[in-house]
Request: fold
Amino acid sequence: MTTAFEGGAAKSAVRALLLGRRRDRSGAERTAAATATSAALLQGLAGAGTVAAYVPDEIEPGYGRLPADVTRLGARVLLPVVPSEGHELAWAVHTGRLTPGRFGLLEPVGPRLAPAALGTADVVVLPALAVSHDGVRLGRGGGYYDRALRHARPDAVLVALLFDDELVGELPAEPHDRRVTAVVTPSGGWQALPTGD
Reply:
């Protein structure tokens, strides 16, 4: 069994490696990945009434396509708002307008919703640096989504966007980790994962 300290140290090392790989990807590879990832994601989201998504940064899959593509579904789209202090994400309905927020991340303009608003989402689209075949998600280490996912419905679909080589055999897990139920990759499309639930 991995202790929290060992898990945290292992995750930090994996994060550094994966972030380096993402920075090294060419613009053409990122653009192609964004197009393919967005198309597969939209197919998987068909029929969702409320989708919680995010605005990818320039090295993340989906950059330049999300959340705009998701709005084409006609679903209510929630986007995260990083608070000026603390670590609990607020949410706002995406109206098409974005503004720089904390850490330079783009966030929606408009009224803020409480953290519990995530509980209205049928699908939560998550950022990730990697996901294991059994659904363990590796984020950037701030813990914002670990805290946010406490508010997600038990039956909500949790889907992470990845590059092809970021769906891996195993990742260090900690007791608070909530496993994702699917991933979307450029080549593999939407892939359901066994979560053991």
Q: What stands out?
A: Residues 1-6 have pLDDT under 50 and may be disordered. DSSP finds four helices and twelve strands in the chain. Residues 126 and 160 are 5 Å apart (CA to CA).
